Amino acid sequence: MLQFPYNKKDMPDNTIEEIKSRLDLVEIVKEYVQLEKVGSNMRAPCPFHAEKTPSFFVSPTRQTWRCFGGCGEGGDMFDFVMKMEGVEFIDALRLLAKKAGVKLEKKSREERGEREKLYELYELAVQFYEKQLQASRKGKRAKNYLIERGISSESIKTWRLGYSPDSWQSLSEFLISKGYRRQEVIKSGLAIKKDDHSYDRFRGRIMFPIMNTASSPIAFGGRVFEGDDKTAKYLNSPQTPLYDKSKVLYGLDKAKMEIRRHGFCILVEGYTDVIMSSQMGHGNVISTSGTALTDQQLNILQRYTKNIYTAFDMDSAGASATKKGIEMARKKDFDVKVIDLPEGKDPADLIKEDPEKWKKAVEEVENIMEFYFKAAFRGKNPTEPKDKKEIAIELLPLIKRIPNSIERSHWIKKLAEEINVNEKAIVDQLAKTESKEKKENIKSGEVKSERKSRKEILEERILSIAAKKPEMIEKIENVTLSPFSQDIINALKTGKENQLKEKVDYFALRPIEAEDYEKEMDSCIREIKKENIKKELREAHLKIKKAEKDKNKKELKVLTEEVYELSKKLQEF
Ligand SMILES: [Zn+2]
After folding, report:
1. Which residues of the chain have pLDDT under 70?
2. Ligand 1 mean position to 466 CA, how many Å?
């Protein structure tokens, strides 16, 4: 049996070898990247940095991979999965062990870390809820409800749907009987602390387990199903050490292969939409679990595809959040298309009515601009001058944002035709229009000068490395940074990065192409120190000018010495 450590270095070599011997790196890479054969090797454009000429090589004989282009990354199948899935070693290990059919031995409870225990707790909770759905009286009603909605028994198994009993303690007691402490159950988010006791978070709900990309359950969505208007229809797990809703896409673990095969993913709103669509053969479906599409989710998604078909109710209350998500995706160079749903229907409804209707809707997917055009013209009379103007105000910022000039000119022409004005008028107005995002940025006060100073660029690099490799923070001790950067460094240093989580995540996720982080960090620090001295020099020169003007000889002498010292320091670099 094999051990279950956190880090690769703690792992007995024969365990890794055992898994490696059962799997082929080429097959693993092929799940993500289209490889072509060159001699005895395989190659592809590097999935870890943007490039046109393929410099990512896989050696089938050595079972290693390396990028000889910009990023210089490389390693074995564990390194590849960690990087590709953006996961820790332990998650890559689970994923590959599962694939290899290698069973990992569990350590005693005391030996295991928090994450491992949480994984096990969630697995137990899924099993508990599954059993309740199949066996308990009310659970069976929940199951019938699902079946009436069109979800098959097979899908219930595949998606591991369950039922949380309508009582205060049943899950907590079950987990405690399995050796967990009450405190751990609370920490998992499955129980809520109240004074000196606690109660189950999910009660009387149909349970949808949310999996990570390695298909391990890490959270739940719970839905009420019997007429109770007082409670929220959906309830989701809170943030835990395993679960951050802004980084998880529901169904991605099952959809990823299908997404690659189809070359696009369908983004829907609800769990049942994902399940129903997958059940009828459109398996490339995912949903955000109760959030608008986030930047981090897009970072994950782009490992699989740059093409998104959305199937949202775009006129509903959540429409503006949805649109924001879509615009964020377009900005990140995703190609977004819109599946037009009949009013008030979601994909699950449509599929239940007739799977062919969903198939057809997917086939008739619209360009996002076509969709915006339809929305802008809805309820307007394009012969009325006032309506013409309103339609143009709606569409011009969206047209302005299209990066490709041929495509942009296509929509200018279309708008001119449809509101019956000449193209030049549109082009003139376009020049006066600020692209929507610029406007929004100004509104939120976020507009920054486009050109960053050299020091800003260097500081950003340092932050990216520090967020990724906190052990290097002490190197920055004596470097003068901007207050913005210093805040982040202080948060990282004191372990309070949660307070600045978004900023830390932002930098942690920035691509840093460095062979050797330490070397890169040292070089950035050296350059920043140089920049700081140059700044002091510039200031000293200004002061000298002033002292000359004031004929302040004493001051002039001090300043001249200062300049001399600074110049000497600068030369030492
Ligand atoms: Zn690369």
Report:
1. 1-13, 106-112, 227-231, 290, 313-321, 434-452, 502, 509-515
2. 21
Q: Are residues 519 and 472 in the same domain?
A: yes
pLDDT of the residue at 1: 36
Domain span holding position 218: 114-243
- Between the CA of 66 and the centroid of ligand 1 the distance, in Å, is 8
Cβ–Cβ contacts within 10 Å for residue 531, how many? 18
Alpha carbon of residue 167 to chain centroid: 35
Among the candidates 213, 243, 273, a domain finishes at 243
CA distances from 297 to 283, 468, 554 (A): 19, 19, 61
Per-chain residues with Cβ under 5 A from ion ligand 1: 46, 48-49, 67, 69, 71
CATH code, domain carrying 65: 3.90.580.10
68 CA → ligand 1 middle, Å: 7
- pLDDT in the model for residue 510: 67
* Ligand 1 centroid, distance to 67 Cα (angstroms): 5
Amino acid 433: pLDDT: 78
148: in domain: yes
> In terms of domains, do 384 and 432 share one?
yes
Last residue within a domain, chosen from 364, 391, 421: 364
Report if residue 280 sits inside a domain. yes
Centre of ligand 1 to C-alpha 512, Å, is 11
pLDDT of residue 106: 61
In a domain, 108, yes or no: no
Whether 464 maps to a domain, the answer reads: yes
Question: What is the distance in A from the centroid of ligand 1 to the CA of 526?
Answer: 26
Which amino acid, one-letter code, is at 223? R
At 527-565, the pLDDT tens digits run 888 888 888 888 888 888 888 888 888 888 888 888 888
Q: What is the 3-state secondary structure (H, E, C) of 67-93?
A: ECCCCCCEECHHHHHHHHHCCCHHHHH
Ligand 1 mean position, distance from CA 69 (Å): 5
What are residue 82's phi and psi, to 5 degrees?
-60, -45
How many domains would you assign to the chain? 5
Instruction: Give 29 Cα–ligand 1 centroid separation in angstroms.
Output: 14
Q: Does 423 lie in the same domain as 394?
A: yes
